[in-house]
Amino acid sequence: MSDVELLKQIIKYEEQHIDEWRAKEKRFKEEYGEDIKYGWSWSDVGIHPSKLQKLLLDGWIEVTYKSRSRTEYRLRDFERAKQYVEMYMGIQKAESVQSGSADIDELFKNIVGYEDVKEIFRLALKAERPVHILLIGSPATAKSLFLLEIGKLQGAVYVTGSGASSAGIEKILVEKQPNYLCIDEIDKLKSSDDLSVLLSLMETGRVIRAKADWQADITLNTKVFAAGNVLNLPGELADRFVILKFKEYSKKEFERICIHYFTKEENVAEDVVRKVVDRVWQYDRSIRTVRSVLRLTGGDASKIDMVLDTLIKYK
Asked: Strands 180-184 and 206-210: what pairing?
């Protein structure tokens, strides 16, 4: 269970008891003239103490009471924790792409330049047998835009390397059986199991699972499209990709690409996109971050600084 999931569980429990605790704390203060902070034990929230220890070390929770038989905890800053979870979930939601029924010939029109690369992608998408493409380059390139465009196709699944590792590439393939698998930030895909599954898929089309929890043996015709900042994949896996290396944009080029794409694709005002780009260029220069911020703010320029400041604070 991730820190975010643990915090969600704690927040839910504290929301149910916060009014009761505050009333008790107020009465204690009035009666004894001292402050006290009520809390919960690990059994109250259903989280083992070993997992709570990490939250304690990271400063999310604090000990409010301790005896030989019981330790009580409380979120150190309830609003901060809630804001962190909501921001994280908002970004996760913004990362998802709904598969549609877009026409291959209509893809990539909102991406400025790269006409030769667009044609390579169209040929790969139309090929009868799988051709897999890997885009390599720094964050300030159009890598993610190509994957987002493919994500519009029927039967496409879009994931990030870190997100795929938590879900499991194998499980995604077995459950979704996608026509197209788009993996952004593939350089963050660390699990050896995930890499082995991809190798088998790209080499033979087979996904085989023979472990105790569940079993599977299916053959897919999935085409894999991926992007990463660096080429750090095992050689045998990298060899199964057509690899295209992108050069980093200048800030002016990055701004032009984002304005062109997001004013058309997300229907956001140009001045709002320009302001987001200005902040993101100082943050991580990622087109995906521009997209996430635009969706989180709903195009409201007054919320841009708050969102970016929060992302920077918890980076």
From this structure: unpaired
With tokens 């400025």, the residue in question is 112
Tell me the pairing of strands 71-75 and 180-184.
unpaired
pLDDT interval class at 20 (50, 70, 90): very high
pLDDT for residue 42:
95
Rounded to an integer, the average pLDDT of 137-159 is 89
Report the helix count and the strand count for the chain, using DSSP H and E. 14, 9
Q: Does the residue 294 lie in any domain?
A: yes
Sign of CA dihedral 140, 102, 158, 134: negative
**CATH, residue 36:** 1.10.10
- For position 97, what pLDDT does the model report? 47
How many domains would you assign to the chain?
3
Residues 118 and 234 occupy one common structural domain: yes
Secondary structure element (H or E) that encloses residue 184, with its range: strand 180-184
Residue pointed to by tokens 């997209």: 291
Angstrom CA distances, 178 to 40, 60, 187, stand at 44, 39, 21
CB of 153 within 8 A of CB of 181?
no
To the nearest 10 degrees (0 to 180), the angle between helices 169-176 and 192-204 is 40
Q: What is the mean pLDDT of residues 190-205?
A: 88
Nearest to 285 by CA among 141, 137, 91, 140: 140
Range of the domain at 274: 249-313
Contact criterion met (CB below 8 Å) for 274 and 259: yes
Verify that 204 and 257 share a domain, yes or no.
Answer: no
Q: What does the DSSP 8-state code read for residue 247?
A: P
pLDDT value at position 268? 94
Please report, as a single letter, which amino acid is at residue 65: Y
CA-based nearest residue to 24, from 10, 41, 36: 36
Q: Which pLDDT score is estimated for 5? A: 86
